Amino acid sequence: MSVCEVHGLTRDYGNGRGVFDLSFAIHQGEVFGFLGPNGAGKTTTIRHLMGFLRPEKGYCYIDGKDCWKDRTEIQKNLGYIPGEMVFFDDMTGTDFLSFMAKYRNVKSNGRTRELLDRFELDPRGKLKKMSKGMKQKVGIVAAFMHDPEVLILDEPTSGLDPLMQNRFIDLVLEEKARGKTILMSSHIFEEIERTCNRVAIIKNGKLVAMDDVETLKAAQVKKYIVTLENKDAVAAFAGESLRVTEVSHNQVTVIIQNNIKEFIAIMNRYPVINIVTPNQRLEEIFMQYYGGDRT
Amino acid sequence: MINWTLYKRGLQGSWKMLLIFASVITMYFTIIISMFDPALGSALNEFAKAMPELMTIVGMNPVSAELVSFLEAYLYGFIMLVFPMLFCILSANKLMARHVDHGSMTYLVAAPVRRETVALTQINVMVTGLIMLVSYATLLGIVNCEISFPGKLDIGKFILLNIGVLSLQLFIGGICFLCSCIFNDCKSAVGIGAGIPTLGFILQMMGNAGKELENIKYTTFFTLFDSDGIISGKAGALAGMFALFAGAIILFTAAIIVFSRKDLHI
Hints:
The complex is a heterodimer of chains A (about 300) and B (about 270).
Chain A: E1 2-14, E2 17-27, E3 31-35, H1 42-49, E4 57-62, E5 65-66, H2 71-75, E6 78-81, H3 93-104, H4 111-118, H5 132-144, E7 150-154, H6 162-177, E8 181-185, H7 189-195, E9 198-203, E10 206-212, H8 213-218, E11 222-228, H9 231-238, E12 243-248, E13 251-256, H10 260-268, E14 272-276, H11 282-289
Parallel strand pairs in A: 3-8, 3-9, 6-7, 7-8
Antiparallel strand pairs in A: 1-2, 1-4, 4-5, 9-10, 11-13, 11-14, 12-13
Helix pairs in contact in A: 3-5, 4-5
Chain B: H1 4-34, H2 43-50, H3 52-57, H4 67-75, H5 79-102, H6 105-109, H7 115-148, H8 155-182, H9 186-209, H10 227-231, H11 235-261
Helix pairs in contact in B: 1-5, 1-7, 5-7, 5-8, 5-9, 7-8, 7-11, 8-9, 8-11
């Protein structure tokens, strides 16, 4: 059963910006990865789901309710982490969390305490003076404290250190096991790989691909930057049968997919100084898989 | 229906500003009331004789020698128009447009609270502040006069005058709040929200200034607040008061509707 549905959603901001005829559905108990380069329309889509924006065309439903008309009803069972954390200037973290609980009319359920412990957050300081990571943690606690059935998370781990990113992934997995439905936008491969069932990628406001994470992983291509001793070697190396994407100074960037042995054999014949695997953005990996142009 | 948590939070956020305005009003009230001299005519009257044009521009020309008329002329032609107006401008911007501009509105609407409730609550915060400010001025005026000139003040008329000021300020607050709901950035919200009442006020002053410009003042809503008329008990002045109250309700309703229907890019 789909909990969240988007049908032909369109909002044109002009100059090709916005979202265009976007459709997808998220099933009960599913973690749905939502990917795309900056400005692709992820946040615009999320704003429609949150009932902040009225669709120009198409519609969004959560739990069978219209995201614009029934937004107040939907919000009762929804948790949200905004892409940008902006709080009320003069509050402490504690003030903010108790304000939100009262504002939402949440009965105290011990969950806030548990979340604070989990993320090792001491919320007593002024929000204004908190680091980005701390603010992010406050936002996470605010999104999960009322134990919602549906979660919309816009780059939820930005600003968190790797340890906390891991704790967040564990939290998402626990919620998933409890049957929660989650939409998560992210740039971090590991986060998506470990939590999501399916992934959608949008670009220029259009859905370019939607698939299982397993399929994505199987198709993963690896990028290597090989540093060679001299320019002659670089030129010769670039002429080999590998898929070369970039040649600069004494470095060659190659893309390897199921041909790692050939790559090693070729490297053996050259004066290789160093090999690096740069961090690849998730979208990039996905785009290569789907043969889309690189952004 | 309002959200009490948000309401309390709004009042907490307003008290500093209220305190500042209250102190300014206290200062002016104390100084000006002390200048009243029932026997000889006040020092201000001497001033008015010396520079009649300047004093009429800012509405400082008492219609009679009574204390209430004196207060009306010297406090309710300028001080009690400008300072509560400033409070409306700042307060309206702070309660709506700033949250949308900065993005903190996210947390107010990403909750099971209707947007109508959010707007109505913020209106209540602003109106509470205004009522507190005007009530304080009323009380301050009465106490001050009773101490310095016991029995001289026509308290009934003075209270009516303050209700009149309140009607005008609620109307101004309505304009500011509506602008704060229409615009997504503070610059436009304050620019237009403050611009309309300021322009009205300037036109009113021009109208006061000279015979040939007298009709200008009928082009603004300030003309509905006829402080002289309230003191002298004119029916038209009371009708003006009601019109301002009614206008305020319409403006606030419009603000709620605009906010509930608008797209929020937060």
